[in-house]
């Protein structure tokens, strides 16, 4: 090669042929994903198996293989073979799972809490279609569809909570919150690619945070639930202050739910009212103590009440509430 010959930079050119997408692709694909989300919320997620997850992730990075060959190969896949194939394609898995690479892939599989045994399911369609919807620029349809579907289920959940009577109100709220969290975790795992690519590039709310916001707006801030929840929590605390034994475990779960929804939710929906009611309670009680007790007894009762509030905070309130309640 002569010295005056210029070096050419290596370039990868795009395929010459144009990929034609079925005009009905987005609608048909979303219906499959919508059905899967419905199954998750309806407690039918056991049909979403690891075998299909392996198949779908394999297909994402080996698309030239026929479907029959995918099925045959994956059915006989061992963990060693899986690690080998995913290791030699680590660059692709780093794109999806970040710096964790192959380790992240296995963590992802374990998080789904499903069996390695092959089951007859449609999870491969779920994973690959969610990926391809984003790839084919249908991320907005996937995201808005997710919002609509989750909102529909949360509306139904709020109706069940509203219809719960007496002490079952908090129980039903706690059960539905648990169900929503489990569904949200699975949905977030399934839509991981959308969450890592489309969401930040479009400045959308991440899936998990979106699920919390929808729960807040469609359940907790529903007029028939919000006031009732506030009154129920304050009544239970009042009963505990007057000597009754309450379900502290349930209280802890409900208060934690408010905290998980954000500091503003806990502070506005509960803490502010809690401090106001507490101030009124101790204002009345302190006046009664002054009228019937000497100075020593008054100080003892005040100290006992102070310790009770500290204990209450440690069991089911936000730790930041301690200084506020003890300063009343």
TrEMBL record:
Residues 121-326 form the Cullin N-terminal domain. InterPro entries: Cullin (IPR045093), Cullin_N (IPR001373), Cullin_repeat-like_dom_sf (IPR016159). One of its GO terms (molecular function) is ubiquitin protein ligase binding. Transmembrane segments: none annotated. Pfam families: Cullin (PF00888). Keywords: Isopeptide bond, Ubl conjugation. GO terms for biological process: ubiquitin-dependent protein catabolic process. The keyword Ubl conjugation applies. The keyword Ubl conjugation applies. PANTHER family: CULLIN (PTHR11932). Belongs to the cullin family. This is Cullin N-terminal domain-containing protein. It comes from Centaurea solstitialis.
């Amino acid at each position: 090669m002569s010295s005056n010959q210029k070096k050419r930079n290596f370039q990868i050119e795009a395929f010459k042929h144009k990929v034609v997408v079925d005009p009905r692709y987005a609608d048909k694909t979303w219906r499959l994903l919508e059905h899967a989300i419905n199954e998750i919320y309806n407690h039918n997620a056991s049909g979403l198996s690891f075998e299909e997850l392996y198949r779908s992730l394999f297909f994402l990075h080996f698309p030239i293989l026929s479907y029959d060959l995918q099925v045959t190969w994956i059915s006989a896949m061992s963990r060693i073979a899986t690690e080998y194939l995913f290791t030699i394609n680590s660059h692709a898995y780093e794109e999806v799972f970040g710096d964790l690479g192959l380790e992240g892939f296995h963590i992802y599989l374990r998080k789904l809490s499903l069996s390695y045994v092959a089951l007859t399911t449609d999870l491969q369609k779920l994973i690959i279609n969610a990926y391809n919807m984003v790839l084919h620029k249908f991320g907005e349809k996937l995201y808005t569809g997710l919002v609509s579907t989750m909102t529909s289920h949360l509306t139904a959940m709020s109706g069940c909570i509203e219809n719960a009577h007496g002490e079952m109100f908090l129980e039903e709220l706690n059960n539905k919150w648990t169900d929503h969290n489990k569904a949200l975790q699975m949905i977030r795992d399934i839509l991981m690619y959308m969450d890592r690519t489309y969401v930040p590039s479009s400045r959308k709310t991440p899936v998990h945070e979106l699920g919390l916001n929808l729960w807040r707006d469609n359940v907790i801030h529903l007029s028939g639930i919000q006031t009732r929840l506030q009154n129920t929590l304050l009544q239970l605390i009042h009963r505990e202050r007057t000597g009754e034994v309450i379900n502290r475990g349930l209280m802890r779960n409900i208060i934690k739910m408010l905290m998980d929804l954000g500091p503003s939710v806990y502070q506005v929906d509960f803490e502010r009212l809690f401090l106001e009611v507490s101030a009124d309670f101790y204002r009345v009680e302190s006046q009664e103590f002054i009228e019937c007790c000497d100075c020593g007894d008054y100080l003892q009762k005040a100290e006992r009440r102070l310790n009770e509030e500290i204990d209450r905070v440690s069991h089911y309130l936000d730790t930041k509430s301690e200084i506020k309640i003890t300063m009343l």
